[in-house]
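INFO batch 0412 | record 1 of 1 | parsing
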Amino acid sequence: MTETVSETHLPGLELLNRGKVRDIYDLGEQLLIVTTDRISAFDHILPDPIPGKGQVLTAMSEHWFGITKHIVPNHLITTDVDSMGPKVSPHRETLRGRTMLVHKADRIDAECVARGYITGSGWLDYQRDQSICGISLPEGMIEAEPFEETLFTPATKAETGHDENIGFDALKEIVGNVAHELRDLTLAVYEFGRDFAKARGIIVADTKFEFGYVNGEVTLIDEILTPDSSRFWGMDEYQVGMSPPSFDKQIVRNHLIDIKWDQEPPVPRLSEDVIQQTTARYREIQGLLTK
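INFO prediction complete | emitting C-alpha cells
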C-alpha cells in the first residue's frame, strides 16, 4: 500500500517553502522538491489528500523532462532518493517516488501558458471581448474548438490566489527581451507534448510552464505536463461545444460545486468515493502518457 504523505517534516533539512502541493527544502546549491498528496480547489487546500498523487506528478515530470531536454534544459538532477546524499538518506522511505533533486534556479516571475484549444479562462475572456491576453480571435468560436495556431498567453506568477493573464508586451516589461525566448520555448515544448500525447489518444488542451536561470541559461523548472499544470482530454470524450472531462481534479471541483460549498472556510471533507475516483483519474493519465 502506497504511503499517503500530506505534509513532510524532515529533521536535519531546511524547509524553504510549503506550497499548495510541494514542500521545498534548501540543500545549498540544490533544492529538494517533495510533491505531497495534498490537493487544492478554489484556492483552498482540502483536508483530505489524494493517495499517490505526488508520485504521479513526480513520475510524469520526470518522464517529460527526459524527453524534452533536446528542446530546453531543465533543473532535474535525479528522482533516485538513494543517490541524494547523507542528509536525505534518513528520510528516503517517506520521499521515495515523490521527490526531485534539482538545481537551484533564479526563477523568472511569470507563468508561460500555451493554449491549443479555447477553454477555461481563455473561453471566458473570449466571450467578454473576443480576445485572450490581447490576441484578437475570429468571431463565432465555440467552446473547446482548436485554434489555428497555438496561443502563447503569459500570466503573472501569484503567490496566493489566481494568476492574472497578461499580454506579451506586459511580459516584456516584467522580464525583458527574454520574453521572446520564453514564448518560443513554451510553444516548442507544448507542441512536442501535444503530438506525443495525440499518438496516445490524449489531447493537451493547454498547459503552463515555469522557467528560471541556471548558470545564466534559461531552464525549465517546477513541473511539466502534469494533470496539475495541464488540461488533458481523452479523444474519445472530446467534442466541440462543451468542456470535455479532464484528467485532473475536476471530479473534486464538481463535487464541491454540487454540495454548494461557498468557497469559504471551513473546507469540506471529501467522500471516499470522490477520493478514489480522483486517484484513479490521475493514475490513468500517468499510464496513458508514460508507459
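INFO post-check: Residues 178-198 form the longest helix (21 residues).
INFO record closed
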